[in-house]
Write a structure and sequence with these properties.
Layout lengths: L1 E7 L3 H11 L4 H10 L5 H18 L9 E17 L5 E16 L3
Antiparallel strand pairs: 1-3, 2-3
Helix pairs in contact: 2-3
């Protein structure tokens, strides 16, 4: 019961802050936290959570998904390199970081 979002255009450091808030919580609690959160990564993270729940229902035939425990982590993705023109013909690099977000659902023990 896993869902993966690859190459999300936000730095992993910022995305990991959201991930830490829902780690270890139940699906019901994680939905409540993500719906109230005012951060840019909260909406894609909530969509990814719903995708993981749908995977659990469809692939693993689990009916009560609210009791599942959320396990999540964020990895560093590709870095897009851009250039900013500067004075006297120079150019400075701009690094646009991406993240890989993984949400796994596990049953309570």
């Amino acid at each position: 019961m896993k869902a993966i979002l690859s190459n999300y255009r936000q730095a992993p450091r910022k995305t990991a802050l959201i991930s830490e808030l829902i780690r270890g919580k139940s699906v019901k609690e994680a939905r409540a936290i993500l719906s109230k959160l005012i951060k840019r990564g909260a909406l894609p993270m909530s969509k990814l959570l719903e995708s993981a729940v749908a995977n659990a229902k469809n692939n693993d035939k689990i009916s009560n998904t609210d009791d599942l425990i959320v396990s999540t982590y964020v990895n560093k993705g590709k870095v897009l390199k851009r250039w900013r023109p500067r004075a006297m013909g120079r150019a400075f690099p701009i690094h646009k970081h991406t993240s890989h977000i993984v949400i796994e659902l596990k049953e309570k023990k």
